[in-house]
Amino acid sequence: MATRMAPAEATTTEEPKKKGKKKLLLIIVLVVLLAAAAAYFLLLKKPAKTIKGAKTAAELTSVSYAMPAITTNLDDGHIVQAQMLLELAPGDTKAEVIKDLPQLNNAAILTFGGMGYSELLPTAGRTQAAVSLTNAFNAVLHTGAKPWDTVQSILFESFIVQ
User: Fold this and answer.
1) Cα–Cα nearest to 65, from 98, 39, 38
2) Which residues contact 149 (CB under 8 A, 6 or more apart)?
3) Could you tell me if 129 and 112 are in contact, meaning their C-beta atoms sit under 8 angstroms apart?
4) Distance CA 132, CA 130 (A)
5) C-alpha span between 74 and 120 (Å, rounded)
6) Is 92 helix (H, G, I), strand (E, B) or coil?
7) Cβ of 82: how many Cβ atoms within 10 Å?
């Protein structure tokens, strides 16, 4: 009888192995289905309709332009050397700034030429110079046919007065 019991025991150990394989297969199928559903919602779903007239992210991001360094004389005989970063209004491009670069350099030379060493040495003087340059640059850029680029602010990357 011992020989008859051995085959019965062998079938009971194979049955749990089959159930384990079925559970593993079921889990794999569920994971694949969940991954497919997530991919559909994240990648293939169409974006919501935008409101007419709403600005896109690219239009809301300001553009900046690094002007070449400028060195010029001040009103009192000292020298200023400045490296400026122009922050343009959202939606603007650098095209008009690049086209008008000679006129912008001239405006910077004329603006600095009307200032003195003692005026530019304190922080408040450099801040006022940035405001004056912004106004002078916008006067240059706002000529000709629209659309115009607009300088919102000027950041000095380097500023040396001697």
Assistant:
1) 98
2) 88, 89, 92, 93, 94, 95, 96, 97, 141
3) yes
4) 5
5) 10
6) coil
7) 23
What pLDDT digit, counting tens, does each position of 98-137 carry?
Answer: 888 999 999 999 999 999 999 999 999 999 999 999 999 9
Give the C-alpha distances (Å, rounded to integers) separating 153 from 58, 77, 132, 156: 19, 27, 10, 10
Q: Over the chain, what is the mean pLDDT?
A: 81
Helix (H) or strand (E) holding 73: strand 70-73
**What's the count of helices (H) and strands (E) in the chain, helices before strands?**
6, 4
Distance CA 6, CA 63 (A): 82
What angle, rounded to 10 degrees, do the helices at 101-113 and 123-141 form? 140
